[in-house]
Write the structure tokens for this entry.
Amino acid sequence: MTERSEASRRCVLGLLASPLVCSAFPRATAAPTSPGSSAITPPPEVLRELPAARLFGSGRLRRFLFHVYDARLWTGPGFDVARWSMEPLALELEYGRTLYGPLIAERSIEEMRRGADIPSARQGSWLAAMQRAFPDVNEGDRMTGVQLPGVATRFFVNDRLTGEIRDAEFTRLFFGIWLAPHTSEPRLRAALLAGAPGGS
């Protein structure tokens, strides 16, 4: 591993370490948007995949004093939070700092394991697919995951399609990182689901 890669690895693992590891530090902060906000135009990749998309909620993830990313959840009209894993949606992450793509993939697998016991062979396949789909990102870059139930998960970086995974279990566990009740970031989840009647 190069010196740059090792430095980036230490950075991303520190920034994205689980709350159990970082219990002495502030948890993620999240500022919800107004429910069903239509003031913000969806990015091009979201409009192509979900033409009727609207902003359902948003929040900011911080680790230590660092702004990691801003997250925005785009959904169609009538989005049902209780059935989020069966609804078309897009999760857009706008990064606040440089992160190493392969390590974002590794961290994603770790978080996905919170939702299910994933066989090692499947983990390896998913990790390889995400490492192909996730490039290194810099401040201001956008990574968008689009959930198309029964079809695929599609990944875009700055409006460019970078990967597609056709596996319903992958889709459920990946988006569950942010949207499932077992998420490691409940405050961010609450902000993303701020458009739900009566909250999440």
Observations:
- The chain has one domain: 3-192.
- The domain at 3-192 is CATH 3.50.70.10 (Chalcone isomerase).
- Residues 120-133 form the longest helix (14 residues).
- The helical segments are 3-15, 44-49, 101-112, 120-133, 168-179, 186-192.
